[in-house]
User: Which sequence fits this backbone?
C-alpha cells in the first residue's frame, strides 16, 4: 500500500504500486530516444539572414496573402517594398462579404450584400487545417483570433436524388452502416479462410476481434439491428430518463441500400488530410486575415491599381498600371526586382518579357470554376429544427454542399449558411446565370434537403469565380503532366522577376500554398541579391 | 440560355436551365411528404399542465441537475418547492474546479487548486452530445454560452506500451492504415469471388469502387505508399510552395503492425453516438450550468444540509438533515411530496421507509470508480510543439486519456489539460493513492506521450470519485440483469417519494439522463397529484 504520509513517492514506488514493468520503462527510454518526428518541413516563420545593399527595392504585384507575406518579410530584411493591388481592399481571395458591401462581377452585375451585422460569406477560402502552419503562424503574428471550423457533422445530411426517394439521410446512419457491412463481409471472408495467404495465425483472431468493435457487429460477427449498431447510427427512439424511456434500436440499411446511397466521398470528407480535425476559421470571417494584414502594411499597399504591363531590363523592372480612380490613366512604378503574385489567369493576359519557359508555364494552367452562394435566413432552422450545428451536408445536385455556420451556435435571430459550393460542370452552369438566378437555384436545390428554405429565406449573394474581376477563376488546376513540364519553370526566378501564389505551390487553392510559395520565392530572391546579382 | 434581363426565373425556366428532370421533382414532393422524422422522442422542455391545490409542497433532495430541473418546473407549475443540498454550491457532479477552490475528499486530504485565472478541471461531465436536447435546452434557458468540444483530433496520439517500442502514433496514421488494409482485404476477397453469395452483380462493382475511395487504395485495389494513402495518413514531408516543396509520401504500416497497435477503441471513439460531432462544452467550464442554475433558483436551495433520514407517512414526508455549519445538529423539513435525487451510493446508506421493491432497487446498483487529474503546465506545448488543438490522446496505461483544452487555442501563457481519466482497475489503484501520488502517476505516464511534461509541469489537482463525499462514486453501473429486475421499481413512485437522477435513466453518467429522469418523475408526480392523491 502507498504510504499516505509520503506525498511524493519515488519512481520505484510508483512502478511497484501501479504495476509498471521494467520492459515498459525500457520502451519509454527507447521512445524518448526515437523522438517525435515532425510531419512538416515547416519550422516557423521564415528568417531572411543578411542585409541587402541599402535601397534595394522590390515591387510586389497583388496584395493577397502571398504578396503581403513577401512585403512583410522583405521589409523586415531591409528591402524597400511597395505593393500594387487591383482591389480597394487587401486579401485577394482571402475575402469575406458583409452587409453593406457591394460587389460587381465581370459582365457588370452588381450585388449589394444585405446580411445582418456579424454575418458573412467567405467566397474564397473558409477553413484552415491544423497542419497549415504558415497560415496559423500568420494569424498568430497578426493577432487574428481563430475558432474551430466544423467539417464533419454526423447529424448533417447526405442527399442523393436517386436514392431513398430523394430523402436525405443523416451522415451517421450511412457511415455506421457502411462500416458495419464492410466489417461483416470481411469477417465472413476471414472465417471462410478466403484470405489465408494475407491474414494468418494470431493476426486472424486479432483482426476478427478488431472488426467486431470497429464495425459495431453483434453476435456471429453480423451487423444487425440492436444496441451495438444503434450506438453508432442512432436509435429509433433515444434512451432517456425514468419510466417509458427505454431506447428503441433503429433498423440498419441493407448492404444494397447502403450501396445505393453512393455516398463514399461524403463519408470520408473529414478523413482527408486537409479536412481532418481540428480545423479553424478566423472569428468574424476568413477575410479578417487579409484585412488585418493590409492594415499592418499600411502605406506599403497602393490600392485600385490595375497592372497593364510588366517589363524588365538589365537594371530593374518597370510596371505600368492604371489608377482605377482615373480610368484610362497609365502610371508606372520601377524597382530593382519584382515579385508578381497575380493569378496566372490574369498574368497570362498581360505583356511580360520573361523567357520562353516561364512564359509557357504562365499559359499552361487553366483555372477552376467554382461558385459559392451565401443565403441569409430569418432564423437558424438547421439548429432549431434539425439539431445541425456546423458541418456540411452533401448532395448530388449542382450546389454540392450546404455548410452551416460554425459560430454563434444556438443564437437567436438570423443566420447565413453556405447554400452552394459548386465545382465542375455545375459551377459552369451556375456561372452562366445572373446572380439572382444562382440564388434561386441554391434555394431550389437546397429546399430538397431543408424544406424550410422558402419560408425562411431572407436574402443572398452569389460569387462565381470565373466572373471575379481580379482572378477570373478560383485556383490553378495542375495536372501531373503540366506540373512535370512547367512547375519548376514557373517557380524559377526569371531575370529580375519571381512569381508566387497558390499557383506556384503543391497545394493549389489553399492559403498555405500562397504563403509558403512567397517564403520560398523571397528566400531565393534574397540569396540571389546577396550573391551579388547587381541591381 | 438564361435571360439576363429577368433576374427571377420561373421554376420551369430553372428546371430547363439546370436540367432537373420531372422525376427529380416528383421525388422532391415525395420527400416532403415523407417528412423528416426526428430521431428523439424529446420535443422540448416539459410543460406541466394543470395546477395543483394551492400550497402543495415538494421537498427535493440534492441540487444537482435533476433536482434543480425538478424545482424549476414544479415551481413554475405552482408547487411550493425547497431543495436541501449537501455542498455549499449547486450542480452536484456538474462541477468545475478553478484556482482558489479548496476540495477535501473522504479520508481528509485537502487540495487547494492553484490554476491560473480562467483555467479549470471538470471532474465530472465535460462534453455535451448534439442529441442531448434537454441539456442543450437547459443551457439555452439559463443563458449558458456553449463552444465546440473537440472529441477527435487526427493529430493526437494513440499510445500502446507494447507496440512501436512504446512510441505514440498519430491517430490519423493508424486510422488511415486500418481503413486501407480493411478495404484492400475485402477487395481481394470480392475479386476472388469468396463472397459470391453476399455480394452479387452490380453491387460487387459498386462496392469495389466504393472501397477504393473509402480506403484510399491505389492501383489494383492495394493500399500502398503514395499520394492516395498520404492524403489520409499524412506525408513524410508535407507539400508546400515554390521549388523544393514537392511532397514526400509516407510509408503505411503493414497489416501486422497496424494490428499490433490494438487501437480499435481509439479509432472509433468519435463514431459512437454519444461522441459524434458536433459536441459542446460551456464556455468557462461545465460547472457554469450548475452555478447559473443555482443562482436562478436562489433561496429555493438550502446549502450545507446533509440528509440523515427520509420518512414518509400517510400525509407527507419528513426529512431529517444536519446543518453542516452546526455539526451534530438535527433539523427537519416536511412536505407533501419528496423527490430524492441523491446518488444511490449515498441513498442506500440512509434510513428511508419505502417498499421492498424500491428498497431492493436502491441497493442494487454499484457505482463506477473514476479518477480525473487536471495538470497545469507553464505553456501549451501540445499546441506549440505538436500542433494538437483539442481532442484526446489514448493510452493503454492507467491514465487512459490525455485531453487537450478545447478553448483559448493558440493562447500564450499556461494551460490545463486533463492528465488522466481513469476507469476500472486503474481508477481503483489511483483512488488508493494520495492526491499528490495520483498527480505524480499522471505525470509519469503522461511523460511517455509528451516528454515535455516534467519540464513544463506547474501544478495539479486530482479527483477520485469513490472519495468524493457527496457521491462516493462516479455514476450508477447497471447491467442488463439488474436493469431488468430493478429499474422500473426504482422509477415507480413509492407512496409520496419519487427518485430521479442519472441512475434513474437509460443513459447513466450523462447529464441528459439526470434531466430527463427529472422530467419523467415530476410529470408522473404531477399527474398523481392532479388525480387527487390527497396531500
Assistant:
Amino acid at each position: 500500500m502507498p504510504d499516505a504520509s509520503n506525498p511524493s513517492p519515488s519512481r520505484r514506488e510508483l512502478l511497484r504500486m501501479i504495476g509498471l514493468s521494467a520492459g515498459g520503462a525500457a520502451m519509454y527510454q527507447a521512445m524518448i530516444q526515437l523522438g517525435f518526428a515532425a510531419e512538416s518541413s515547416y519550422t516557423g516563420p521564415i528568417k531572411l539572414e543578411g542585409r541587402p545593399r541599402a535601397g534595394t527595392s522590390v515591387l510586389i504585384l497583388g496584395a493577397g496573402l502571398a504578396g503581403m507575406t513577401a512585403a512583410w518579410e522583405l521589409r523586415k530584411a531591409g528591402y524597400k517594398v511597395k505593393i500594387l493591388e487591383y482591389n480597394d481592399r487587401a486579401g485577394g481571395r482571402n475575402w469575406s462579404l458583409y452587409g453593406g458591401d457591394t460587389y460587381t462581377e465581370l459582365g457588370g452585375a452588381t450585388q449589394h450584400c444585405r446580411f445582418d451585422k456579424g454575418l458573412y460569406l467567405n467566397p474564397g477560402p473558409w477553413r484552415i487545417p491544423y497542419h497549415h502552419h504558415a497560415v496559423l503562424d500568420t494569424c498568430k503574428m497578426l493577432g487574428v483570433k481563430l475558432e474551430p471550423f466544423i467539417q464533419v457533422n454526423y447529424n448533417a445530411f447526405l442527399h442523393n436524388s436517386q436514392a431513398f426517394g430523394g430523402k436525405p439521410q443523416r451522415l451517421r446512419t450511412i457511415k455506421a452502416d457502411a462500416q458495419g457491412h464492410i466489417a461483416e463481409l470481411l469477417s465472413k471472408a476471414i472465417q471462410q479462410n478466403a484470405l489465408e495467404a494475407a491474414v494468418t495465425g494470431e493476426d486472424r483472431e486479432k483482426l476478427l476481434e478488431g472488426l467486431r468493435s470497429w464495425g459495431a457487429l453483434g453476435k456471429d460477427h453480423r451487423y444487425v439491428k440492436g444496441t451495438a449498431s444503434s450506438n453508432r447510427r442512432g436509435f429509433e427512439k433515444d434512451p432517456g430518463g425514468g419510466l417509458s424511456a427505454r431506447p428503441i434500436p433503429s433498423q440498419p440499411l441493407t448492404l444494397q441500400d447502403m450501396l445505393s446511397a453512393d455516398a463514399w466521398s461524403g463519408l470520408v470528407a473529414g478523413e482527408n488530410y486537409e479536412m481532418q480535425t481540428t480545423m479553424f476559421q478566423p472569428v468574424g470571417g476568413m477575410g479578417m486575415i487579409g484585412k488585418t494584414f493590409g492594415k499592418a502594411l499600411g502605406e506599403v499597399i497602393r490600392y485600385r491599381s490595375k497592372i497593364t504591363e510588366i517589363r524588365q531590363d538589365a537594371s530593374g523592372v518597370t510596371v505600368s498600371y492604371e489608377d482605377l480612380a482615373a480610368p484610362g490613366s497609365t502610371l508606372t512604378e520601377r524597382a530593382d526586382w519584382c515579385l508578381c503574385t497575380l493569378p496566372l489567369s490574369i498574368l497570362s493576359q498581360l505583356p511580360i518579357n520573361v523567357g520562353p519557359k516561364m512564359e509557357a508555364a504562365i499559359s499552361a494552367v487553366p483555372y477552376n470554376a467554382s461558385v459559392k452562394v451565401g443565403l441569409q435566413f430569418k432564423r437558424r432552422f438547421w439548429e432549431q429544427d434539425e439539431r445541425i450545428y456546423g458541418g456540411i451536408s452533401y448532395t448530388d445536385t449542382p450546389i454540392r454542399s450546404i455548410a452551416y455556420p460554425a459560430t454563434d451556435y444556438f443564437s437567436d435571430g438570423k443566420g447565413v449558411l453556405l447554400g452552394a459550393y459548386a465545382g465542375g460542370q455545375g459551377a459552369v452552369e451556375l456561372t452562366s446565370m445572373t446572380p439572382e438566378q444562382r440564388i434561386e437555384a441554391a434555394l431550389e436545390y437546397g429546399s430538397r434537403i431543408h424544406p424550410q428554405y422558402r419560408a425562411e429565406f431572407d436574402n443572398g449573394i452569389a460569387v462565381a469565380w470565373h466572373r471575379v474581376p481580379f482572378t477570373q477563376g478560383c485556383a490553378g488546376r495542375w495536372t501531373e503532366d503540366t506540373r512535370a513540364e512547367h512547375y519548376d519553370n514557373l517557380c524559377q526566378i526569371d531575370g529580375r522577376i519571381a512569381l508566387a501564389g497558390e499557383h506556384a505551390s503543391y497545394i493549389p487553392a489553399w492559403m498555405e500554398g500562397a504563403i509558403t510559395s512567397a517564403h520560398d520565392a523571397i528566400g531565393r530572391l534574397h540569396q540571389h541579391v546577396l550573391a551579388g546579382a547587381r541591381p
In short: Residues 85 and 303 of chain A are 5 Å apart (CA to CA). The first strand of chain A starts at residue 57 and ends at 61. The first helix of chain A runs from residue 11 to 18.
